[in-house]
Amino acid sequence: MATKYSKPKGTQDILPDEVGKWQYAENLLKKTVELYGYKEIRLPTFEHTEVFARGVGDTTDVVSKEMYTFLDKGDRSVTLRPEGTSGVARAVLENGVLGSAAMPFKAFYLQSCFRYEKAQKGRLREFHQLGIECFGTHDPFADAEVIACADQILKDIGVKQVRLEINAIGCKECRPKYNAALKEYFAGYKDQLCETCLARLDRNPMRILDCKSEICQNIGKGAPLMLDYLCDDCKQHFDQVKQTLYAQGIAYTVNPTIVRGLDYYSNTVFEFIHTGVGTQGTICGGGRYDGLITDFDGPATPGVGFGMGIERLLLALEDEGVALPGGNTPRLYIANIGDAGRAKAAALTAKLRKNGIYAEFDIVGRGLKPQMKYANKIGAVYTMVVGDDEVAAGQARLKEMATGEEKTVCFDELVNALI
Predict the structure, then answer these.
(1) In angstroms, how far is the first alpha carbon of the chain from the final one?
(2) Measured on CA atoms in the order 209, 211, 216, 217, is the torsion positive or negative?
(3) Of the residues 291, 319, 347, which one is the last residue of a structural domain?
(4) Cis peptide preceding 224, ω within 30 of 0
(5) What's the mean pLDDT in 337-355?
(6) What pLDDT, in 10s, does the model give residues 120-138?
(7) What is the CATH number of the domain that holds 163?
(8) What is the spatial distance between Cα 384 and Cα 389, in angstroms, rounded to a whole number?
(9) Radius of gyration of the chain (CA)
(10) At what angle are helices 232-247 and 140-157 packed, to 10 degrees?
(11) Is the pTM of this model over 0.85?
(12) CA 170, 104, 86, 291: dihedral to nearest 10 degrees?
């Protein structure tokens, strides 16, 4: 039952026992994207609202329905980031990166994002995302490299039940002809379209194809396809992407209905869809956004990238029965008896920690038996009991918990015994 002290709807607490799995996954993601030349960028959690309204597009569901937007104390409209690409575009433009850094400019981020939408499995109001952004190249090999990076991440972490779907959604040269065809098609269904899609009809008819209304989705199934309207340059670009993926052994399916949910996309778009996560099966999506920097009044600068949902990635692994390593467990737990034993346990633990060895001792005041139960519960690799006799002798029995094997170790040699 929700109370004023409950977490907000659509958020989650990631407790220490689960954080280890997140850290393992995040470290693997970082390692892989760094192999592709990406370096980390860190951005503000909130931006001026115009950054997202202009970049994402005010006809998208994200901007029109899902953003957390509010006035700050200076009456300025600010928004919690709903996605990462617009913020990166703003950052590289504002900081003069495009004129000073070697191109292409490659950056990645691991961050939380915020969208006000119906909370359900795999769809939270605060969610976490890995994103990579590559600015400064229009080459189709860059598109294929971004897709290959996502593909390697999924393979390396152990996701198998996933398929790659790709599409091309045109450029500023061929998109207008397609939009005209869409307007003509959807105009025949004005009396059936939802209110939101009626507003989109004149301003951005392609957004109708991304509507979540079942009625609009059914109407959209008969709509013209962008692939039939691509200009020669877009056709060649898409053909090269496909050829490069094929040459690298990356299986894909062309899905002509993919448009993605953000307006800055152009030409190549793609999604990695997991077959077991249900309605929220898209765990990674991305594509090209060649007009985004010019939308921010910057120089024409092509870009391509992706966003990968961490929660959905972990759900996919869970669905496939892939167990990620958990958090760190102590190398040694020192149980103690009596005041002298406790003082010695504290000193030994401090010494081990200074030498880079994770160790624990009783700081609660438990009896010996509860201490040993606790050591087993936290997964200690070794245990040692220290009391008056052990303090006097300068040594104690070191027990390996998994095998039950014991040996006597001098306190002065304890660090070496645990390395």
Answers:
(1) 48
(2) positive
(3) 319
(4) no
(5) 97
(6) 777 899 999 999 999 999 9
(7) 3.30.930.10
(8) 13
(9) 28
(10) 40
(11) yes
(12) -30
Residue-number span of the structural domain to which 409 is assigned: 332-418
Asked if the structure places residue 137 within a domain, the reply is yes
The DSSP code for 8 is P
Instruction: Report the distance separating Cα 208 and Cα 199, nearest Å.
Output: 10
For residue 156 the two structure tokens come to: 């390396």
Hey, CA dihedral for 352, 358, 364, 367, is it positive or negative?
negative
Residue 103 tokens read as 């191109």
When divided into structural domains, the chain yields a total of: 2
- Spatial distance between the Cα atoms of 93 and 230, rounded to a whole number of angstroms: 30
285 shares its domain with 345: no
CA distance 73 to 69: 13
Scan for tokens 């438990």, then name that residue.
Answer: 366
Contacts of 404 (CB under 8 A, 6+ apart): none
d(CA 320, CA 314): 10
Per the listing, tokens 């996701």 go with 159
Residue 85 three-state SS: helix
